[in-house]
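Structure ticket #2291
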Amino acid sequence: MAEAKSAGNGGMQKTVDTYSKTAHQAVDRAADAATAMAGRLGEQVEALGAKGEELLEMKDEWLDGAREYVRQNPFQALGIAVAAGYLLHMLMRNK
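Resolution: structure written out below.
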């Protein structure tokens, strides 16, 4: 009788070991996938940061260009500003 009980426990232990091994493998695969995803996300964040810096530099270049245009063509710049203001007024007014 003790031998039958022992054989039953051995089979149960084998099943538990199998499930445990499968669970560990699944956790390892999930951890590997999460690590890979975090790496890709980090690369995307770095790329966005670089793009943001590039856009800020572009903004500065455009502002410098606009300032230079106003210095060289003050009357034309004034005319453009008045026309743009009038257009915005026409677009925003209530009918």
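Closing remark: The chain has a mean pLDDT of 84.
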